[in-house]
Design brief:
A hairpin with a 2-residue loop joins strand 1 (42-45) and strand 2. With 68 residues, the chain is an alpha+beta fold. The chain has helices at residues 2-6, 10-13, 26-34, 58-67, and strands at residues 42-45, 48-52. Helices cover 41% and strands 13% of the residues.
């Protein structure tokens, strides 16, 4: 999922800060639970779970970022 974000055009990447959490860490597990995610991969935008269990096409991901 991080690769999908990293592959976005530079003008979109300039608008976002992103972080990847691992379920092998307490912080990652806590974040997963906080978002009430049920499966991986998952993407939250502005603290809201937007994509779960799929990697969205770039256009869909850009639209979600710009609409946030």
């Amino acid at each position: 999922m991080v690769a999908a974000v990293e592959d976005l055009p530079p003008e979109v990447l300039d608008k976002v800060d992103y972080k990847q959490w691992s379920l092998r860490t307490r912080e990652g597990v806590a974040r997963f639970r906080e978002l009430k995610a049920k499966s991986l991969p998952s993407v939250a935008i502005e603290g809201k779970l937007r994509f779960e269990s799929n990697i969205p096409p770039a256009a869909e991901l850009i639209a979600a970022i710009e609409g946030a």
